[in-house]
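lol ok so funny story. i was supposed to be doing the assay writeup but got distracted and ended up predicting the structure for this chain instead. priorities right. anyway since i did it might as well share w the group, maybe its usefull for someone
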Amino acid sequence: MNAVLPYAHGNASMQPRGYTLVETVIIVAVLAIAALLVIPVVSEDGQVRLRQAAELLAADIDHARIESMGAAADPCIIVFDSAANAYFLARSSKPTTPMANTTTGVDFYVHYGSGRASALTGVTLGDLSLGGDNVLAFDGQGALGEVSDVSISLKCLDKDIWLHIDAVSGDVTIE
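and the output, tada:
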């Protein structure tokens, strides 16, 4: 019985063949489709990090408000340091010392790009409208220590996001 060998055609040595035009076109099309799927994900990465940073800050603001209501004699404040691209929660009696989280024991200190915010590289503190200083304070009822609402912006790449805190309720909205 004679076995049929592919591409032998009477020649004992098999020569490797190249890709046909159709195979090359299919490979290029697959790569183009993959690129179209990846490019939007990469470009939205800054927006995702920005949203996550805003949600982290909003959660910390809510935590400070709740801490203030639970300890009206020594309410919680948030101190912003734009130069260091960081903020921390502290007691008003010790405004330069970050508070420790009662559950984890870790300080409530956030520096974008490290620690709790290590995944948020590229995010920076933007404009702070906190009534003329860099401190956000709450009273024992959870209301802001400011006369009017305050706003905080965060920036990443060419995008920004705003957090607005209602002066009366202390509620945070993200835009």
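The radius of gyration is 28 Å. The longest strand covers residues 123-129.
back to the writeup now i swear
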